Each structure stands twice: as C-alpha cells, then as structure tokens.
Amino acid sequence: MELVVATRNKDKLREIKELLKGLSVKVFSLESFKGVPEVIEDGKTLENNAIKKAVQVSKFLKKFVISDDSGLEVEYLNGDPGVYSARFSGKGATYKSNNEKLLRLLEGTALSKRKACFRCAIAVADKGRVIGIAEGRCCGKIGFESKGDNGFGYDPVFIPDGFKKTFAQMNAFQKNKISHRSIALKKAKNIILNYLLLYR
Ligand code: ITT
Asked: Which atom of ligand 1 approaches the CA of 15 most closely?
C-alpha cells in the first residue's frame, strides 16, 4: 500500500514519517513525482486548506494521499498567525523572520498573556475523494526569546503546557509524544486503517 504525503515541507515530512511508523504503508512525498501543480492555500481554515491539498494532489496523482495544514494560534494576536503561519513575515518569510516578528509583536507582554496553541489538520483523500479529516492541538506559551535548535518553524519560541523548555529544546521523541501533529496523525491512522479494511 502506497501513501503520498502532499507536502513540500521537509520538516513536516520527517515528523509525519516518524509518526506513521508501524502502519504498513510505503510513504512518498511530492518530491517523488514530477509536475504536481502547486495548490493555492487560500482557505479560511486549516481544515479547508488540508482538504484542498489532499483532494487536488490525490486527483492529479490518482493515489492515496494525506495532507497536513498546521499553524500557531496566539491568543494575544486574536489567533494570528493561524492559517498564515508559514508566510507570517511576508514574502520570502523564513522560520527565523517569522519568530522575530512574533517576539516583536509580543514585546512587553507578560507570560500570562502569551498563551498559544499549535493546531494541525490532516486530510485523507483517495483519487480525489475525501475520506476523512483529523485535528490535533497542543497548547502552551510563547517564550521571551528563541531557545533550542531541534524541530522547525515556531518550535524555538513555543513552550508546551507542563514543560519548562521549548519544543526546539526537546528531542523528536519528546515532541512527538505531545505535539498537535502526533494527536492529529493518531486519529488519521484510524481513518486510514478503517478505509483500507472496508474499501480496498
Ligand atoms: P506544505 O503546505 O507544503 O505542507 P507549509 O510549510 O507551507 O508546507 P503550512 O501552510 O501548513 O505548511 O504552514 C505551516 C507552518 O506552521 C510551518 O511552515 C511552520 O512555520 C508552522 N508549524 C506547523 N507545525 C509546526 C511545528 O510542529 N512546529 C513549529 N512550527 C510549525
């Protein structure tokens, strides 16, 4: 059984591959295929974008596909950057410039007002048809400075509830135990298993 992960983000792919271990599927990414059209992520929600990515890619490749749309919602910023997490600091945004913008916007804000949640929506589609959607959430606080070199994206500024260190100060095993992505993928795994049992 082959599964394509509809992402161009190598960091996400690394985490997804690790989390899918144990499921007897061969995992491919978009790198393995030529000419897959770019999906415009213009949905208002992570779920909409995840469905759009999974449906368009699985229709084009005629394959079984999962997609991940994720982002960080900061309470003080009314849920921003949210769906705009990847391009928060504008065209040419990098993880570093995004984190710098976030820390700047929260400058002078007390820890109690720095609540944030990572959210992840995973959509599963087969040959252009949605099979299911799963969501995961991991909440915590935005620290006062970037700390740690592991992980990716906003990991250096995100301190999950119940911990004193950022995601980027944790190893992959620790992050994967509690992350938004691991929660969503656990649910997505069940969707995949049920579908394979019933329809394939
Ligand atoms: P694809 O659409 O190709 O999958 P992308 O990076 O554009 O890749 P998104 O639109 O879903 O993906 O944006 C997700 C952004 O949210 C990502 O670039 C990071 O900045 C941030 N993000 C998501 N999950 C994260 C995590 O586990 N740790 C840190 N940052 C994360």
From this structure: 27
Q: Of 80, 55, 68, 78, whose CA–CA distance to 16 is shortest?
A: 68
Does the domain at 2-199 match CATH 3.90.1640.10? Answer given as no
| pLDDT tens digit sequence for 41-61 | 999 999 999 999 999 999 999
For residue 166, the model assigns a pLDDT of 98
* Cα–Cα distance, 133 to 60 (Å, whole number): 19
Backbone φ and ψ for 2, nearest 5 degrees, come out as: -110, 140
Domain layout of the chain by residue ranges: 2-199
| 56 Cα–ligand 1 center, Å | 19
Tell me how far the alpha carbon of residue 2 lies from the centroid of ligand 1, in angstroms: 23
Question: Taking residues 8-32, what's their average pLDDT?
Answer: 93
**Would the pTM count as exceeding 0.90?**
yes
